[in-house]
Specification:
Layout: H1 26-29, E1 39-41, E2 48-57, E3 64-73, H2 102-109, H3 128-136, E4 156-157, E5 163-164, E6 175-182, H4 197-200, E7 204-205, E8 214-215, E9 217-225, E10 231-233, E11 244-246, E12 249-263, E13 269-282, E14 287-298, E15 319-322, E16 331-337, E17 339-341, E18 356-358, E19 365-373, H5 379-391, E20 398-400, E21 413-429, E22 435-450, E23 457-474, E24 481-493
Length: 521
């Protein structure tokens, strides 16, 4: 660390206030006002290491630099006590093949799988060590999806709105991007990024380095968009449509790509498909907007639609589910949504049985019907029928707190609290004894703004379902009465207000080039 100096930027010259610069003399040190780098250490992850301390003695005449080499103790509980493989702390430059070491490098790295330490590699696939090594080469969350030549490209805007093809698609990371690209009719056939072949010409590696197993990207569907925006689905997906100049148009330009990846529980990709939207440009067209999307589905499972990522989006269904008996995790119902009674044109409750409408996040809703009570109805059967009508055949027990909550994340599911109240109003009864029937279901969804004030995410924190019942009084024989049955949903924002005088700083979510601040630290 005594030889490290990150503020030494000028060659053979003294950098101002750089107390570790070996080019500085005692006379130059006396002119410094402070040390820009007061302490220099090695790897911050080590528990104990040497540290170089730099300071100025301003009381001396002239002022002079003070240098100390001390033992620096890392206060973090999670630190590295002993580094038995120090090369892992930094990038190792690969060994350049020469005529002398070529055979050794070919023996070590020329197979379908290899290890950084050759002696520990076992080519026997039946051995335990080989099995453990193969486990580490399966895809994990967020790891770029490898192809034969590079990775699956998901173009996205970086600093500006223009497309950058250097964005890799991460495993199990659902993404949707839009960006702009410069085009022209004269050069459209030579621009790779507007051709279907650019997105399907490379096979995906199902496992990293382990036995060469490749998955081809198949074309699932092709939609052609006309100049006026009308879209047509082609019947055949087997024809590769490349950009072609036709009169003063360039047709078969890629406007959108949607990848769908099917994987196993072990992290192996077994199928990949791409859907395309193709369009045309004229000579007046200078740029186009492209959209890209990627989604993942585990084999032998049904995809669950999301209502936000992560927070709920206004207007999308509230996701719900139940927990089967003896099963520790929530499970989504048939539609995976919270639903209420759907109003019908004739307003007949008995005819509306089974008609449901999803609860949309942020939308206060009310629906209902009318029930005609006659002397032939049995009280208990009527009460159960109305309860099934209000709640549905399988009312969920849990609601997802986020729009992208997964079933395995137990803490992301909010249990529904059930309450019961009684109305004081009595309805004429055709029965001999007193009877209570449900007349309304009120669902209150309490949500809060979660995360950054700049980009808050909607999170559901509490759901209450209140069933209101009414008592039936004696109804004279031969008479009928109509009872209104209602169902409603109310969304309540319970977010804490911002502190008085607090003003959120604007945030620019962009990635700067690595050398943007050079030569400044």
């Amino acid at each position: 660390v005594a030889k490290l100096c990150v503020c030494d930027l000028l060659v053979a010259q003294c950098d101002v206030n750089c107390c570790c610069d070996p080019d500085c003399t005692a006379a130059e040190f006396s002119l410094f006002t402070t040390c820009s780098i007061p302490i220099v250490t090695g790897d911050s992850r080590l528990c104990s290491q040497k540290a170089a301390i730099y300071s100025l003695d301003v009381e001396a005449n002239p002022p002079e630099r003070i240098f100390k080499l001390i033992d620096h103790i890392n206060p973090n509980v999670f630190c590295i006590h002993t580094a038995n493989y120090k090369q892992a702390f930094s990038f190792i430059s690969p060994e350049t093949p020469t005529s002398e070491n070529f055979d050794q490098l070919l023996k070590q790295f020329g197979s379908a799988t290899f290890s950084t330490e050759f002696d520990s590699w076992n080519i026997n696939p039946d051995s335990q060590s080989s099995s453990d090594t193969n486990e580490t080469y399966r895809y994990e969350y967020g790891v770029p999806i490898q192809t034969v030549d590079a990775f699956v490209r998901l173009p996205s805007p970086v600093v500006s709105s223009w497309c950058s093809d250097a964005n890799p698609a991460g495993f199990l990371v659902n993404q949707a991007t839009k960006c702009s690209r410069l085009v022209s009719v004269e050069k459209c056939s030579t621009i790779q990024a507007v051709s279907m072949l650019f997105y399907i010409n490379s096979s995906i590696l199902a496992k990293w380095h382990e036995f060469v197993f490749q998955v081809n990207i198949t074309v699932q569907s092709i939609i052609v968009q006309s100049l006026n925006g009308m879209r047509t689905l082609l019947n055949s997906n087997e024809v590769l449509r490349l950009p072609t100049v036709l009169d003063e148009l360039c047709i078969n330009i890629v406007l959108g790509v949607s990848y769908h990846i099917t994987y196993t529980e072990a992290g192996e990709i077994i199928e990949a498909a791409a859907s395309f939207v193709l369009g045309a440009i004229t000579k007046e067209t200078l740029s186009i907007q492209q959209s890209f999307e990627i989604s993942f589905t585990q084999v032998n499972t049904k995809p669950v639609p999301l209502s936000g990522n992560p927070g709920y989006v206004v207007g999308l269904p509230v996701r719900a589910g139940f927990r089967p008996h003896g099963y520790p995790l929530p499970n989504t119902d048939k539609h995976g949504q919270l639903t209420i009674l759907q109003s019908t044109s004739n307003q007949d409750c008995l005819a509306a049985a089974g008609a449901r409408t999803p609860v949309l996040f942020g939308y206060n809703m009310i629906s209902g019907c009318k029930l005609r009570i006659t002397a032939a109805m049995e009280c208990q059967l009527l009460a159960q029928t109305l309860l099934d009508l209000l709640k549905g055949q399988n009312f969920p027990e849990y609601v997802a707190s986020f729009g992208n909550s997964q079933a395995q994340d137990v803490l992301d599911w909010v249990p529904i609290t059930h309450l019961h109240t009684s109305e004081q109003v009595k309805i004429y009864n055709v029965f001999q004894s007193s009877c209570q029937i449900p007349v309304s279901l009120e669902i209150e969804v309490q949500w809060t703004k979660y995360g950054s004030l700049v980009n808050p995410q909607a999170r559901i924190v509490n759901v209450t379902a209140t069933v209101t019942t009414a008592a039936l009084s004696q109804l004279p024989s031969g008479r009928e009465r109509t009872v209104p049955i209602t169902s409603s949903v109310v969304f309540t924002d319970i977010s804490s207000p911002a502190e008085p005088g607090y003003k959120a700083r604007p945030t620019i979510n962009v990635k700067l080039p690595f050398d943007f601040f050079f030569p400044f630290v």
